[in-house]
Amino acid sequence: MPFAPQRIVEQVTDHLRTALRAGRWQGRLPGRERLAGELGVNAKTIEAALRQLEREGVLMNPGKGRRRQIVAGEERPVAPLRIALLLSEKDDARFDFIVDIRQQLLLAGHEAFHAEKTLIDLAMNPDRIASLVARTAADAWIVVAGSREVLESFATGSVPAFALFGPMTGIRIAGAGPRKAPAIVEAARTLLGLGHRRLVMLVRPRRREPVPGVPEQAFLDELQAHGIVPAPYHLPEWDETPERFHAMLESIFRVTPPTAMIVDEAALFVAVMQFCLARRLRVPEDLSLVCTDADPIFAWCRRSVAHIDWSRGPVMRRVFQWADGLSRGQGDVRQVSSVAKFVPGDTIGPVPKKAG
Length: 356
Fold this sequence. Notes:
The structure is a single chain. The chain is an alpha/beta fold and 356 residues long. The protein is built from eleven helices and twelve strands. The protein has three domains: 63 residues, Winged helix-like DNA-binding domain superfamily/Winged helix DNA-binding domain (Arc Repressor Mutant, subunit A), CATH 1.10.10; 127 residues, Response regulator (Rossmann fold, 3-Layer(aba) Sandwich); 144 residues, Response regulator (Rossmann fold, 3-Layer(aba) Sandwich). Strands 4-3-5-6-7-12-11 form a seven-stranded mixed β-sheet, with helices on both faces. It has a three-stranded parallel β-sheet with strand order 8-9-10. It starts with 7 loop residues before the first helix and ends in a 13-residue tail after the last strand.
């Protein structure tokens, strides 16, 4: 059938929806290219229509390279879920992104609540986390910034789980998060171009143990590409407490103070700024700073903060799609990423002349 140029995606979506309800296809939908040929539209239009049908719960995407599964016509009642959010730390509850996810799940009819303990409370210990899961009345879990070991334990458990951030690559667990490695490489390359050689990246233990995560390794590789041999100095170790964090800062500034730092998360960024203020270090005259996240508090800063930004939309949509699929008896382990970008700001500048 010919489609009018106006609202073509909506028309194709309606056409496919009607055909699915009529039982034209069974089990799995034909591939995108075949559908595009049959309907006389381009593949991008088909893909947009199929994604809309996924959001409606008519189709389920089992992953890259596999045809979409048809849910329409299967008598699967939508069952509200009890979804526990296992936060990384208590402060996560205040983030707009986490608040929005919980509110949207509630609006969808699910019971979404914060677990009684956080990953930090439980020291990222899989055994202690398993005990929490066992005593919590939840049908599914959203794990916020879990370590690789934690995500692997959820992937092999009996309760469905979703990895919201964290090193999930290669683990059979549904998940979503930003792909920051290219943006971090761009930030490091910008600082190197400004003459900085003493670069340090500050990340939480889960991002570097037992091995550096993808963004962290990309940072180290970029140093190597510029003739700087990566060492513990560039990715320092510290235990996850404020006291240990500040002790680490004291240590690295004592002998060979860095001239530039890429700091993970806004909370740690603010702590570094306070450290600089106490020691009368000027930003960026004495120390250039980049934060790996965008935070609403940066809008209140007189000098713009160099940071890494990413679109929240794809991540949030993936969370809701996963929850909707589970409520219809259709679980999956698909992972999606949102591409991040480096946003330069007034907190970076040339290497100080005294640092050479």
